[in-house]
Give the backbone structure.
Amino acid sequence: MSFFKHHGMEAQRKGNNVWAKNKFYDPAKPTILLNSHHDTVKPNPAYTRNPFSANVEDGKLYGLGSNDAGGPLVSLLTTFFYFYEKNELKYNLVIAATAEEEISGPNGIELIWKDLPKIDFAIVGEPTRSDIAIAEKGLLVLDCVSKGKAGHAAREEGVNAIYAVVR
Ligand SMILES: [Zn+2]
């Protein structure tokens, strides 16, 4: 928030999510969402540096989350800042720095989705070795309940709740 304010931009915050619209946002134009996350996974035991400090070595920034997704998020923020004050854009830009991506949590982008304007498409920043990916690798999180019926497998009894949920 303060970073946006410092640069003379209005931003909004809900939980640990921060988002902003370009200065000349026009609801009649299509909107591109620039999104990446600022949460990280916990440091794994193989981490050889202090994960909680940011150090530059040989021009490279090391620290937990500097790759996923610090680098992509900073790139998208820079893109947003560059276009923020342009008033002849064919598109609106919305930047969203979101939380809980690593845990597919309810307080990440899901929390602010209804607060965002209508999004026509999104550019999501993730470390891809500078390759362009057109889709996610594949993750579907379902919060649901499936009921089966207990029975011994050898006697072909019961109803397998896993098969039921697949349908
Ligand atoms: Zn990521």
Observations:
- The pocket of zinc ion is lined by residues 37, 68-69, 101, 126 (CB under 6 Å).
- The longest strand covers residues 31-37.
- Residues 2-139 form a domain with the Aminopeptidase fold (CATH 3.40.630.10).
